[in-house]
Amino acid sequence: MKRFFELILSITGLGVTFPLLVVLVPLVRLTSQGPAFFRQERVGRNQKSFVCWKLRTMAEGTKQAGTHEVSAAAVTPVGGFLRKTKLDEIPQLWNVLRGEMSFVGPRPCLPTQVELIEEREKQGVFSVLPGITGLGQIRGIDMSVPEKLARCDAEYVEKRSLALDLRILWETVMGAGREDRVRTS
């Protein structure tokens, strides 16, 4: 049943946000070199890799790493706005439509984040689809603290329900988890 609702919501979301993308895509392209969309390999359910889509918020050529491992100087001026408002996540509706992600779940990590993968494996986190937002995000826990994040993700897996998903979505929309932990040095 959840999958059916996510299909409907992702199709609706893509339709509703299309006019916004029509504005944002040229804005990204006009304010920094490179493509408007950013593709990155991520680890999903059952540790299966998939390509996660986002609007590009960092300068072209920035190393492929977790946000906490990248300098704040790599974030473009428009990218800063997109990250703060979470508009850079709109293309992940495509990932939801394809069944690679859910609206709510543990955020998908990079294949290079070995410590987080190991912790999540121990905790059984890979049994669910990764999400556009999750319990770790609204609590302000990022991937720089893998053990703590994996415990939080496991708590979500254990307690997941429609009510919890709706609470996480609501808190995300209301601004929880907006901190963006890019390195400042």
Labels describing this entry:
46% helix, 185 residues, 7 helices, mainly alpha, two-stranded parallel ribbon
Whole-number mean pLDDT = 91
Strand content: 5-15%
Helical amount:
40-55%
Question: How many helices does DSSP assign?
Answer: 7
Main sheet: strand order: 1-2
- The secondary-structure element order is HEEHHEHEHHH
Distance between the termini: 46 Å
Sheet/helix structural class:
mainly alpha
What are the low-pLDDT stretches, counting only 5+ consecutive residues below 50?
none
Task: Compute the number of strand runs.
Answer: 4
Main sheet, how many strands, which sense, barrel?
2 strands, antiparallel
User: What's the shape?
Assistant: globular
Over the alpha carbons, how many angstroms does the gyration radius reach? 16 Å
Quaternary assembly: single chain
Give a brief description.
The chain has 185 residues and is mainly α.
Protein model, in words:
The chain has helices at about 1-30, 75-85, 90-95, 115-125, 135-140, 145-160, 160-175, and strands at about 35-45, 50-55, 100-105, 130-135. The model has no long low-confidence stretch (mean pLDDT about 90). It has about 180 residues and is mainly alpha-helical. Helix 4 packs parallel to helix 6.
Task: Produce the secondary structure layout.
Blueprint (H helix, E strand, L loop, with lengths): L1 H30 L5 E7 L5 E7 L21 H9 L6 H6 L4 E3 L9 H10 L7 E3 L1 H4 L7 H14 L2 H12 L12
Parallel strand pairs: 3-4
Antiparallel strand pairs: 1-2
